[in-house]
Amino acid sequence: MKKLILFILLLSGLTSQAQFGTRIFGRDPIIHLENFDKQRTHWGYFLGFNSYDFKFDYKNNPGKDIEVKGTTGFNVGLVGNLRIFEYLDLRFEPGLYYTQRDLTFYEDGLVDNKRQVKSTYLHFPLLLKFSSKRTGNVRPYLLGGFSRSWNLSSNADAKDDNMTGGNFRMVKWTTNYELGIGIDLYFEYFKFSPSIRGVFSLDDELIRDNDPNSPYTGNVGSMKTRGVFVNFTFH
């Protein structure tokens, strides 16, 4: 619910940004970068923020066995854009994403019931961008596609687990699907594109403890990443 509220607030912010841009450029604005989107390919870069979470499904007694508290992380990356036709583009946006999630376990008998999961991801999304008709210097769009993420902080090869070494282990690679919205704002010398995107893992990312009855992982059916990205792209 918290993530949904955050998404709605950010969506409202993007809408306000579009209205703000329209006011700045006026009712009959001077059209900037009129032929920019007619290029076959163009490049850019992005900076932004992320908020990662985990979605846990349990084997028995479904409930809140593990509480997840996310923090605000940082994103940076490149953008490659291939024009397919007027309203459809193919985007490749490789980036580096830093994040942290704090886990609290509610199983009885645990002495150390907290884990700090720090992750550094190399993120490789391949996205389709569906753009509306340009109005003045404003053009909204939708994004959707799939991605692969490489967790550089993964301790998948560690032999010690939660019980023997305090290691909360995760897989190295995961596959995701992504959905988002954004707005292209055209200025005199560059195009600025704020966007918001939801990212949802398709894979179970948890490596179980060696003991199948571990109070940390024994009751977990699956653990999948969810995230919200807010990126500011410059072309």
Any guess at the CATH architecture?
Beta Barrel
Give the low-pLDDT segments: none
Number of strands: 10
Q: According to CATH, what is the topology?
A: Porin
CATH class descriptor name? Mainly Beta
Structural class, judged by helices and strands? mainly beta
On the 0 to 100 scale, the average pLDDT is: 87
Order of helices and strands: HEEEEEEEEEE
Could you tell me the strand content as a percent range?
over 45%
- The total tally of domains equals 1
Shape: elongated
Oligomer: single chain
Number of helices: 1
Helix content: 10-25%
Major beta sheet, specifics? 10 strands, antiparallel
- Work out the radius of gyration: 21 Å
Topology overview:
Layout lengths: L1 H24 L15 E18 L7 E5 L1 E14 L2 E5 L2 E11 L8 E18 L6 E14 L21 E14 L4 E11 L18 E15 L1
Antiparallel strand pairs: 1-3, 1-10, 2-5, 3-4, 3-5, 4-6, 5-6, 6-7, 7-8, 8-9, 9-10
Keywords: Signal
Organism: Flavobacterium album
Protein name: PorT protein
Quick description:
This is PorT protein. Helices cover 10% and strands 53% of the residues.
